[in-house]
């Protein structure tokens, strides 16, 4: 999987810890869905998909409940971070979202919030957004790193490990 291979190359540069407990999430495999652990932290990884009708990149994250119905991830069982890797022609980037933020943005099932089963992400290079998408890009921006031309290793460490 391209996104996990890329992620593993990043980890080699920013950590002495190995990736462990790597598991493919079959229900979302078209998004290269994976969970893993690193340095006592848990992660969920996805590859964002470019769509033809809307700007940005689409990503899903859901699981099956006891009745085998799709449901959003739950805050209490969610990994510490969600990583969304973007490959778009010559552009590459990653979003590294902490689960607390995902709960605050009503993406994880938490308290009275039912959560969402998908999300659209907007790297800094996406322009011409409508007001709602622009607002979303604004809160996502601090958790995005453009990896197209070089890697800011300090920022990567901060996003992965803080």
UniProtKB/TrEMBL annotation:
Gene3D superfamilies: MepB-like. Pfam families: MepB-like (PF08877). This is MepB protein. It comes from Enterococcus quebecensis.
